[in-house]
Every structure is written in C-alpha cells, then in structure tokens.
C-alpha cells in the first residue's frame, strides 16, 4: 500500500510541492505509465484497450532498451518458483496468455521445449524436487528422463538424468514489444520518449510527478538530479514500471512511507554466442540445475538459430541514482569471462571446442533479495 508520511514530514512535503509548482507547468492526466519496457507496454496496452487515456513516459529514446532487450527471450513454464507464490501463478498463466497473444498476432515464437539436466549424482535429487514443484505449480506434461533417453534426444548432451518441459519456448521480444506499442497507440495511448520522471510528491490523495527532459538530466553530469522539474503531472492513475530504477524512483516520491518500498539489488549476467554454427548442436533449450541468483549458464537458441550461452551471475553495487535512471550500467562483455563459461558449459556439452565462444551481450537482473538470501516473491503495491 502507498501511505503518506505524518508528523514533521508534512511541512517538508508541503514545501517540496510548493517549490515544484512555483517553477514548473502543472498538467492533469488520466493514466501515466512510467517506463516503456515490456511490463510498462503491456500495462499501457491493457489500459488503452479499456478506454483509458494513457501517457507513457520513457527516459530512453525508444521502448525496451533495458532488461526487456537484454535477456534470454525464453518463455518459462513455471517450474522453479515456490508453490502458491505470485511468481508461480503469474508464470504459468502468463505463459498461456503469451503463447495465445503471439499466435493470434503472428509474433515470432517457438514452443521449443527445455531439458533441465543433472550432470552429477548430487544433482539428481534436486531434479526430482524441481519436477514435484513444477507439478504443484500446474506445469503440464513434465517428464523425467534417464540420461540415455535425453542424450538420444540431444546427441551432443551429456547428463545422468533430465527433466523435460515441452511447454517452454522462445519469443522475439522486439516483435512482442512492437505489437504492444502498436496496439496501445491504435487506442490513443501517447508515448513520450527522452522524458524522465525524477520524483514526485503526494498532495492529498494525488501523486504529483516531477518530470524533465532526459537530455537536461544527462547534461547535469554530476550524478545529481536537477533542483526543479520542468513539468508536474497530476494523474488519476500512476504505474511505476521503471524497471531497474523502479524502487529508487519510489523512494523519490515524497510523502510515501519508505518502509513499504522494497530494497533493490542488481545482478549482471553475461552471454556468449557460439561461433560458426551453421548447424546448432542442440534443438532444445538446455538448462543446468539452478544456482544462487540465477538459473545457471544455459543454452538458448533464438529464432534465427543462433546459439547463446548464459547468463552467469555477477552481483554489482555502487550505482548512483542518475545512472540507474538513465540505464548507464556497464553492459560490456569481456572476452576473459569465457574462461569461466567453458568449464560450466562442458559439464553438459563436453564437445565444446576451445575458442568457439564469442562475447555476446549482457543484462541486469532486478532483485528484491541479495546474495545468499532466500529469493523474494513479486511485490505488487497499489493505493
């Protein structure tokens, strides 16, 4: 729940609101969605289809430049998440809706199937636990395979046992986002790119959003926000889907109780591509047993047949607020990272040749729990 501050904070809150109004144009709006990643786009599309007047504010020059375009593009089945969690429920139902949406609109996707593999005796019980969890979550048609059967399905694979998920798949994330943008715009949604929400304040029951042009925030260049916004928007509905900066943005909404804002942790993941692959070694997604903070260095294929390995897990910190808002994370992939990838991949793909991995891309996982903490469930907060 969004809650207002009380006591001495009220004076500071009133001062912040008065100062913002004295220097900026104030405009009313119906629905404002902050962030044009895949989540923000899906929210905007649904609101627009319901007849709402939607404005999407995005700090980047276009949609989907953050985590939405820096991931494995996998449609997950719902195997990994604790039963009765929001993650489990949303993943299973979301997968069904996503396949339906892509099929109806001709968005490139492929229900390719996935093998989760145990390569050592200690991993076999973990595989059984995953199967039980997936069944409890409502994932259909999971099947346990002995090593020889899995290796007949994938001759380049080496494993003792494997869990086969036929409903896992891949999707062209850019085409998906382009479809959501088009449908939202066709129902009169407006997109304002290069526009950053830098904070806000509560007045009564209304959130006042402080907005500035991204170029002016960028020109500041000192890791600090401008003292005054250029525009104050007063929407009836605000959706904070600002991706990696969503918790940081929430903390800049004066008048909210900081106790309801979850902490933010970041884990970088690198990807490498397989060089010279006219014939991909695998026809299905291949995943090892999950690790702390991720699902292990796995094999994914895109719709063009390119083979990707990743991501690893590299916890990061020390990112200032402005850099987070402007997506200034370090996305470089050093060739030296391949030294850690080869032994991890060869556990299930022993024929991987030296020198065959090329740096691909990287992404940042938004996390609500830190290293060696129990994974958090989704947090959905409403006023």
TrEMBL record:
Protein name: L-2-hydroxyglutarate dehydrogenase, mitochondrial
Tree of life domain: Eukaryota
Cofactor: FAD
Family: Belongs to the L2HGDH family.
EC number: 1.1.99.2
Gene3D superfamilies reported for this sequence: D-Amino Acid Oxidase, subunit A, domain 2, FAD/NAD(P)-binding domain
Catalytic activity: (S)-2-hydroxyglutarate + A = 2-oxoglutarate + AH2
InterPro entries for this protein: FAD-dep_OxRdtase, FAD/NAD-bd_sf
Protein's UniProt keywords contain Flavoprotein: yes
Keyword annotations of the record: FAD, Flavoprotein, Oxidoreductase
Domain called FAD dependent oxidoreductase: residue spans: 30-367
Organism listed in the record: Corymbia citriodora subsp. variegata
Gene Ontology molecular function: any one: (S)-2-hydroxyglutarate dehydrogenase activity
Annotated Pfam families: DAO
Keyword Oxidoreductase on entry: yes
Enzyme class at the top of the EC tree: oxidoreductase
């Amino acid at each position: 729940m969004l809650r207002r501050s009380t006591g001495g904070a009220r004076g500071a809150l009133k001062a912040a609101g008065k100062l913002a109004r004295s220097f900026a144009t104030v405009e009313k709006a119906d629905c404002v969605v902050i962030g044009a990643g895949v989540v923000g786009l899906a929210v905007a599309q649904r609101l627009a289809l319901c007849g709402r007047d939607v404005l999407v504010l995005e700090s980047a020059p276009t949609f989907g430049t953050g985590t939405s375009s820096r991931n494995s593009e996998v449609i997950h089945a719902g195997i990994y998440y604790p039963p009765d969690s929001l993650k489990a429920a949303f993943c299973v139902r979301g997968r069904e809706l996503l396949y339906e949406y892509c099929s109806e609109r001709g968005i490139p996707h492929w229900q390719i199937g996935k093998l989760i593999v145990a390569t050592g005796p200690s991993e076999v019980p973990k595989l059984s636990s995953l199967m039980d969890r997936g069944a409890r979550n409502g994932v259909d048609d999971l099947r346990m395979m002995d090593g020889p059967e899995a290796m007949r399905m994938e001759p380049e694979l080496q494993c003792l046992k494997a869990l086969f998920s036929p409903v896992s798949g891949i999707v062209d994330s850019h085409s998906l986002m382009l479809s959501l943008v088009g449908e939202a715009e066709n129902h009169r949604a407006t997109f304002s790119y290069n526009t950053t929400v830098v904070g806000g304040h509560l007045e009564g029951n209304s959130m006042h959003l402080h907005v500035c042009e991204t170029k002016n925030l960028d020109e500041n260049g000192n890791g600090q926000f401008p003292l005054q916004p250029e525009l104050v928007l007063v929407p009836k509905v605000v959706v904070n889907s600002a991706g990696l900066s969503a918790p940081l943005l929430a903390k800049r909404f004066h008048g909210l109780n900081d106790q309801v804002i979850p902490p933010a942790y970041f884990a970088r993941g690198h990807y490498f591509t397989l060089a010279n692959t006219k014939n991909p070694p695998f026809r299905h997604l291949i995943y090892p047993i999950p690790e702390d903070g991720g699902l292990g260095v796995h094999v994914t294929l895109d719709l063009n047949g390119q083979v990707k390995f990743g991501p690893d897990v590299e916890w990061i910190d020390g990112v200032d607020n402005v850099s987070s808002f402007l997506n200034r994370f370090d996305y470089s992939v050093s060739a030296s990272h391949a030294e850690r990838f080869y032994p991890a991949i060869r556990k299930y793909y022993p024929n991987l040749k030296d020198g065959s991995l090329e740096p691909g891309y990287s992404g940042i996982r938004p996390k609500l729990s830190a290293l060696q903490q129990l994974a958090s469930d989704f947090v959905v907060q409403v006023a």
